[in-house]
Specification:
- The protein is an all-alpha fold.
- Helices cover 68% and strands 0% of the residues.
- Helix 3 packs across helix 5.
- The two termini are 20 Å apart.
Length: 108
């Protein structure tokens, strides 16, 4: 996530969507296990998929994260979060991802 924030500060109009998606994946894995953050964690996982999170390491596999989330909160909750994320326009996804992470939203 540090790389993502540095890139954002250096080039605020550029967002590396796969890197953002990867940061969301990692954060969601932690957040879903915390009841107060669970909804944001589910949203982060859903957004990670839409932003093309990297899948080049076994620990980054979205299916693994979705399966774990479904065990914790149920398949319906995971699918509901995915459906809500798909309802966002392409332009809304990046700002929403930063908001979910609690990071400043890049300005144009």
């Amino acid at each position: 996530m540090q790389r993502l924030l540095v890139l954002q500060r250096l080039r605020s109009v550029y967002v590396d969507r796969p890197v953002l998606g990867t940061a969301l994946t990692g954060w969601s894995s932690w957040a879903i296990g915390i009841p107060e953050l669970r909804e944001r964690g589910l949203e982060a996982l859903a957004l990670a998929e839409l932003l093309g999170a990297r899948q080049d390491q076994p620990s980054l596999a979205l299916e693994l994260h979705r399966t774990r989330a479904a065990r914790l909160v149920g398949t319906d909750a995971v699918e509901a979060a995915r459906s809500r994320a798909r309802g966002l326009s392409t332009d809304e996804r990046v700002p929403r991802a930063f908001t979910v992470l609690g990071a400043p939203v890049p300005s144009a």
